[in-house]
Each structure stands twice: as structure tokens, then as C-alpha cells.
Amino acid sequence: MVDVLVPILIVVGAVVGMEGVAWFTHRYVMHGWGWRWHKSHHEPRSGVFEKNDRFAIIFAGIAVVLFAAGDAWSPLWWLAIGVTLYGVLYFLVHDGLVHRRWPFRYAPRNRYLKRLVEAHRLHHAVSGKEGCVSFGFLYARRPEVLRERLKESRRSLRSTA
Ligand SMILES: [Zn+2]
Ligand SMILES: [Zn+2]
To answer: How far, in Å, CA of 76 to CA of 70, rounded?
Structure first.
């Protein structure tokens, strides 16, 4: 039993933990000193790729390093699998469902997925670096809460301008 439980806990923990890491990176790095790359994601895309994709490459690199550092089926490997799984989920939700970087249309009916899509659209309601809401990807506040925050941040942006 423990043989199965420990890997499951590591993978689930890694996915949850990575949502925190992604939130933090998005909030403080991408909308901070990493804005030079992330800016491309808040502007209309001109080609297949955008500078912002470099962040995804870095995260993929971290997963590769974890795989390389651990022995087969060691805890480090399960951690690497969790990080990779998060990457896949992130790609499906963010690049797929929200930004439609795939060649077909798919509108989710699921309430949770709809909420994620709406929350991230609200993140993109602001084109600049400041005043954005909703920095997470697999967890999002209720759209009403986000809309309210957006209004507040617009108000304070205006008053500081
Ligand atoms: Zn952003
Ligand atoms: Zn986005």
C-alpha cells in the first residue's frame, strides 16, 4: 500500500506545489523583472511562438534536470513526473483552452474549466504589466471576485497616473 501511496502523494503534492510556484513566478517574475519576455504574451501574437514561451522551456528544463538527478522510480523521479504533469495540464488549460493555440475549437462545458478560462481572460483584460488580476492557472477565484478586484485596480491605477 505504502508503495503506491508515497508516489501518488509526491505527484499530487508536486502538481499543487507547482501551481504555487507558477502563481509566484507569474505574479512577481513575469510581471516583474521578467516582463521583457512576458510582455509578448499580453500583446497580439505575430507568429507561432512568443518570447514568453521561453519560461515554459525553462520549466521543462527543470523537469529534465530532476529526471536526470534521480534514479529510476526514486522520489525525485516522482517529483519530476509531478512537475511534468503540471506542465501538461498548464499547457492544456492555458495555451489550449484559453489561448486556443491548437487547430480546433473546443469550448468546455465543465464549470471548473469554464471558471479557469474566464479567470485567465480577466487576467488579460489589462494589457500592461500593472493592475492585473488572477495569476494562477489551475486554481482561480470566482469571476465576480476577480471583476471586483479589476475595478479596484483600475481605479487605483487611474489615481496614481
Ligand atoms: Zn500575465
Ligand atoms: Zn495567458
So the answer is: 5
Residues making up the chain, counted from first to last: 161
Write down the pTM of the prediction: 0.93
pLDDT in tens, 54-98: 999 999 999 999 999 999 999 999 999 999 999 999 999 999 999
Residue type, 119: A
Domain residue extents for the chain: 2-160
Binning pLDDT at 50, 70 and 90, where does residue 2 land? Answer: low
Q: Residue 94 C-alpha to ligand 2 middle, in angstroms?
A: 6
The rounded Å distance from CA 124 to ligand 2 centre is 7
Distance 135 CA to ligand 2 centre (A): 9
For residue 134, give the ligand nearest its CA. Answer: 1
Alpha carbons 41 and 121: distance in angstroms, whole number: 12
CA dist 157 and 161 (Å) reads 6
Q: Which ligand is nearest to the CA of 130?
A: 1
